[in-house]
Amino acid sequence: MLEIQYSNSLEAGTDEAGRGCLAGPVTAAAVILPPNFKLPLLNDSKKITEKQRFALRPEIEHQAIAYAIAHVYHEEIDEINILNASIKAMHLALDQLSKKPEYIIVDGNRFKSFQEIPHRCIIKGDGKYQNIAAASVLAKTYRDDFMEKLGLEFPQYDWKKNKGYPTKKHREAIKEYGITSYHRSSFQLLPQSQKI
Q: What is the average per-residue pLDDT within 138-156?
């Protein structure tokens, strides 16, 4: 069973989705949960099914004290790099919370201080704390929705299924059709041996 949060303060958990993708935004969420929060299925979004994630999303939103989602798009990822874009997305989500947190816990090991609020980075935090797990579910589902919409415009890249991740089909489509305006040009889109 995951702990609800790390500290005894009004705490936000934050996480992102889409760091390893070849196209589309990196998406972050920030979530503040109440002390009596209960959602037994909740876990790291990678450990539950897509159907479970989308079932959990309205439950998280209904029970949370506050939550917010933010995208940083591919153009900015190419300008500032994916690590800085991921942190910026988390900052944007935290900034949109309707309540200001007193403490922040972050999935992973890299973060930059936000508004001088104390924070802690927790490796695999989305499998340890419910507020980070909730943020991981929101970030993943909102990004998936975004990529499915883009996929209607560019069906050949199979974004409906791969959400922009570097699957075989996605890379074959890049090789055959080239890149779209949504691809991250700073990423290695094809292995060296397959360069266009």
A: 97
- Cα dihedral sign, 93-89-70-133: negative
User: Whose structure tokens read 């055959």?
Assistant: 176
Q: What domain range is 104 assigned to? A: 11-145
* Calpha distance 51→141 (Å, rounded): 10
Report if residue 185 sits inside a domain: no
Question: 54-67, pLDDT tens digit by residue?
Answer: 999 999 999 999 99
Name the pTM for this structure: 0.95
Closest CA to 50 of 156, 150, 162: 162
Assign residue 154 a region (left: φ > 0; alpha: ψ between -120 and 50; beta: otherwise). Answer: beta
Residue 154's contacts (CB-CB under 8 Å, 6 or more residues apart) are 180, 182
Distance CA 42, CA 44 (A): 7
pLDDT given at position 189: 87
CATH of residue 90's domain is: 3.30.420.10
